[in-house]
Write a structure and sequence with these properties.
14 strands, single chain, D-Maltodextrin-Binding Protein, domain 2, palmitate, alpha/beta, 276 residues, signal, Lipoprotein_NlpA, disordered N terminus, 2 domains, globular, 5-stranded mixed sheet
Amino acid sequence: MAQTVKTKFTVVGVIIAAVIIGLVVWNQQKKSGSDELVIGISPSFAKPLQVAAEEARQQGVNVKLVEFSDWNTPNITLNHGDIDANFFQHQPFLDNAKKETDFKIKAFAKGAATHVGLYSKKINSLDELKDGAKVVVPNDPVNQGRALLLLQQAKLVTLKDPNNHLSSLKDIAVNPKKLQFVEVEGPQTARAIDDVDLAFGYPHYLRLAKTADPEQALLFDSNKDNRYAILFAVHEDYQDKNDKLKKFVEIYQNSPRVKEALDADFGAKLWFPGWK
């Protein structure tokens, strides 16, 4: 059974403490008038953001990117006030995090949205998937729902509510192949592909982990709405002094060099502008 978000927050307490200690210097700098913009990010999104940060620096905006390896600490750190913004989650994930906690976080702007796929190193088509096959899905409520929608698109399962993007394993109505589901943290789906028959995956994490060709999914999702666009998120009382974050977002959304980095990192056909 997947852990609840609250349970996960308890488990990563030591990590959080270490991160907060490491960020205290930046927090003091902010309080003393530093104009540095500190953004917490996932490593899989780093390269396009680094390009945007380089261009922002040329325009007088000093940006510090802080990488987090999990999907819990960035919101805890943002809510604590030790970073100005984070960039790792889409709106459904943020909505669920706020429902499970007392976080005071809101979306500031949208970034790229990416397709997701079903990947395998053991079969060459979904028709080859055997009864009782092991399938990796994320263990958080939101991304698990996204994985199940894709498995439904592949006609491997049928959900009680075919349109519910928050479905969980208990909401599977029909599982004709009696698939066995392995639940892992979202960022670890890319590494789990070696141990199972089929894995739900994010192209950018696969490219980072180098475990599979992100463009060689057995099936990609057909979704093109911006529900899953990655957000620039901020604390609810965030004040964008001198429009630093606004300028950075504008660079990210409009720079040809950032677009080139997105094409290289995700694959030109595997992402689309979530802000349009």
